[in-house]
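Reagents: none. Just compute today. TIGR03086 family protein.
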Amino acid sequence: MPSYAPSMDIRELNRRALAYAGHVIEGAGEARPTLPTPCADWTLHGLLRHVVSQNEGFAAAARGRGAALSVWRDGRLGADPYGAFAASAKLVTEAFGEEGVLDRPFDLPEVRDGVTIPGAVAIGFHFLDTLVHAWDVAATVGAAWEPDGELVTAALAVAAQVPGDTESRGPGLAFEPIVPVADGAPDGDRLLALLGRSPGWTPPGAEIR
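Predicted 3D structure written out:
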């Protein structure tokens, strides 16, 4: 499971990642919900619903109610995807801000069923997921993905600890296989590649940027 450097305030990093993801999602505006995304199984609507569901699921896990898969899959966008995201981001931020949460056991059944994970590690996972899903949305709508360097550096520290073996990565698992990148690639590209994204991905039919 991913971890993070002890010197990092993982909850503050997570809050900043959520704020950045909100900026990207708000900027997506009226983009067609059926647009394909870098996540092969999801349209833009499906991706945004997943992000909302994850926020709600992590909030439930922080409060000892994360064991049931249903709490991770019940996110709704309604007529206002950004509003739904903002509400779920507030929910998870409040849950992560509770006293003692860093040492609290989290159930994350989508990652590893039946095993609890320390809160600090689980929040690191959410932070990483949030920042990379912001790229998924940005790439889908052709927008820039420019999180600040501290967020990328911190996310790299988490992503580098995700196992690269076939039991941890592949179809139906939490992560796709690592994508090769050139030596000296920017940190953002390295981060995406470690999470199974091709940094040069563009929507089908789009011109190569």
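Residues 18 and 130 are 6 Å apart (CA to CA).
Action item: order primers for follow-up constructs.
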